[in-house]
C-alpha cells in the first residue's frame, strides 16, 4: 500500500466547500426558437429555484446590440427578478458605467435598494458592452472609459449619506449605500478595486488569461476600507453539468460552437463551427472557456475545489451557456446538489 495521502472522496471535498458562496450569472441569452419574452420567463424561473437551491446572488450583465443577449436594460431585469424572489441577492454583474451618468445609476439602484432592502448588488465594469456603432448610438466615445475611476468615486459618493451643502443628491439613492463591486479581466480593475477597498469580480469565465496575476495583485495591494476590511474575490466559472459525463461533454461542445458563431457574427452550421474548432482559431475559443467544470455530479466538487484554490476565490459566480433553457436549469440544479448548497 502506498504511503501517499489518500485522495479525498466527494463528501470530504464537498464539506471543504461547505461555506463557499456560489452565485448565478445570467446573460439573458435569447434562443431563436424561444424569443425574448420566454428568455425573461426562464430567468425568473431559474432565479426562484436558485434561491431555493441555496445560491447567494443572481446577477445580470449589461450588453448592447447583440441579437442573442437581452440583458441590455440591466436595472429593469434586476427589479423584475427581485420582485419575483424573496431572499436571494439580485444585481448587476455588471453595469458598464462609462455608458451612463453616475447620477442615473445611483437613482436606479437606489430605487431598487429602497424597494428590495438588503438584496441589491451593483457590479461596475469599464468596458462598453458593445461595439463602436453602439457607443455612437448611446452618444458615448471610447475615451469615456478613461473616467471610470472618477465615475466610480462619484457614484459611491451619491449612494452615501448626503452631506451638508451637497449640490446634487440622488433621490432615491443617497444613504442607500448599495454594495459596489469592481468587475474586470485585467490588472486595471484589480488595482482600482484594491485602491478603493472594494470587492473584485474577475471575468474568468470568458477572459481567463490574467486571472492569477490580477487576483494576486488585488490581494497584495488591497487597502482595507470601513465596509470591507478584507479583500474579497468573486471568480467567474463556466459549468456544464448533466446527468452523465457524455451529456455534459455535449453541452460543453455546444457552448464552444456557440462561441465560434458569436465571434463570427453570422450563422454557421454545426459542421462549420466544428471545422473552425479544429483550427488554431478553435484553440483560442477553447482558451476563452478554459475555466469550465464539465461532468456529472460526482465529478463536480473536485473540479470546483481545484478552481477555487487556483483563483484564490472567496466566491464563485457561474455561467452556464447551454443550448436550451431546460438544460441550463438542470445544470444549475445539479451543481447545487453536487455542492450541497442548500445544506
Describe this structure in words.
The chain has about 350 residues and is α/β, with parallel strands linked by helices. Helix content is about 45%, strand content about 15%. The chain contains 13 helices and nine strands. It has helices at about 10-15, 35-55, 75-85, 100-115, 130-135, 150-160, 185-195, 210-220, 245-265, 270-275, 280-290, 300-310, 325-340; strands at about 20-25, 55-60, 90-95, 120-125, 180-185, 200, 235-240, 290-295, 315-320. It has an eight-stranded parallel β-barrel with strand order 1-2-3-4-5-6-7-9, surrounded by nine helices. Helix 3 (about 75-85) links the parallel strand 2 and strand 3. It is globular. Residues about 1-5 have low confidence and may be disordered.
Short description:
This protein has 343 residues and is α/β, with parallel strands linked by helices. Helices cover 44% and strands 14% of the residues. Residues 23-308 form the Luciferase-like domain.
Amino acid at each position: 500500500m502506498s504511503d501517499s495521502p489518500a485522495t479525498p472522496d466527494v463528501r470530504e471535498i464537498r464539506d471543504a466547500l461547505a461555506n463557499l458562496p456560489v452565485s448565478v450569472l445570467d446573460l439573458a441569452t435569447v434562443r431563436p426558437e424561444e424569443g425574448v419574452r420566454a428568455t425573461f420567463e426562464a430567468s425568473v424561473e431559474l432565479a426562484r429555484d436558485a434561491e431555493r437551491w441555496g445560491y447567494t446572488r443572481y446577477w445580470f450583465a449589461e450588453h448592447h446590440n447583440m441579437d442573442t443577449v437581452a440583458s441590455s436594460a440591466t436595472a429593469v431585469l434586476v427589479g423584475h427578478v427581485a420582485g419575483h424572489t424573496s431572499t436571494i441577492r439580485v444585481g448587476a454583474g455588471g453595469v458598464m458605467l462609462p455608458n451612463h451618468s453616475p447620477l442615473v445609476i445611483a437613482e436606479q439602484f437606489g430605487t431598487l435598494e429602497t424597494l428590495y432592502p438588503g438584496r441589491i448588488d451593483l457590479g461596475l465594469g469599464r468596458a462598453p458592452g458593445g461595439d463602436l456603432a453602439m457607443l455612437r448610438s448611446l452618444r458615448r466615445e471610447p475615451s469615456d472609459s478613461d473616467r471610470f475611476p472618477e465615475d466610480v468615486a462619484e457614484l459611491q459618493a451619491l449612494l452615501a449619506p448626503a452631506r451638508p451643502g451637497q449640490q446634487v443628491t440622488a433621490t432615491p439613492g443617497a444613504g442607500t449605500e448599495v454594495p459596489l463591486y469592481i468587475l474586470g479581466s485585467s490588472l486595471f480593475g484589480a488595482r482600482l478595486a484594491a485602491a478603493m477597498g472594494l470587492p473584485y469580480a474577475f471575468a474568468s469565465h470568458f477572459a481567463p488569461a490574467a486571472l492569477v496575476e490580477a487576483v494576486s495583485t488585488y490581494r497584495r495591494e488591497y487597502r482595507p476600507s470601513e465596509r470591507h476590511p478584507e479583500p474579497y474575490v468573486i471568480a467567474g466559472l463556466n459549468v456544464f453539468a448533466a446527468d452523465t459525463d457524455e451529456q455534459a461533454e455535449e453541452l460543453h461542445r455546444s457552448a464552444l460552437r456557440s462561441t465560434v458563431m458569436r465571434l463570427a457574427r453570422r450563422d454557421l452550421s454545426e459542421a462549420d463551427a466544428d471545422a473552425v474548432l479544429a483550427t488554431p482559431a478553435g484553440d483560442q475559443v477553447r482558451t476563452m472557456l478554459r475555466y469550465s467544470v464539465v461532468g456529472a455530479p460526482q465529478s463536480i466538487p473536485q473540479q470546483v475545489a481545484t478552481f477555487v484554490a487556483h483563483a484564490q476565490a472567496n466566491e464563485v459566480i457561474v455561467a452556464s451557456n447551454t443550448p436550451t433553457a431546460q438544460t441550463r436549469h438542470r445544470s444549475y440544479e445539479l451543481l447545487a446538489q453536487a455542492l450541497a448548497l442548500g445544506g
